[in-house]
Amino acid sequence: MTKHVTVELLLLLGGQAFAFSEKELQHYVCHEHLKLPESAIEVRLGDGTRADCLGDEYVVEVEFASKWKDSIGHVMHYSNQTQKKPLVYLLLTSPKDMRYYHQMQETLAAQELKYPIRVLPGSFYETDEATQKKIQKYVEEHF
């Protein structure tokens, strides 16, 4: 049986991205981007693990690119626990992080895991200042 893993890339500008913690970015992705309620963030599953976000269709893992291997294991486990489709938001903070994306892509392909890739607004190749300001405002209001 072919498994499907959805991977979305949240591409952030280098130095500025590290001003935000993984938890802050997780909340931003789940609440602002996916429009999930607060109750759908950091959801405790039946075995005691916590999914970053739990939507109607997807269970979500938000992870920095360098930890892509962790993200696959986590989201596949959460998917098994919830019977929801796995969705990974990979946070790239510099153009060099694309190497992690390519490693993830090669690994998933080698294991015959099919997945669509959707790139979110704010890539390295366009102005991303507005996205950074939006995240900063969200963090200031919620943390």
From TrEMBL:
This is Uncharacterized protein. It comes from Microbulbifer epialgicus. The lineage of its organism: Bacteria, Pseudomonadati, Pseudomonadota, Gammaproteobacteria, Cellvibrionales.
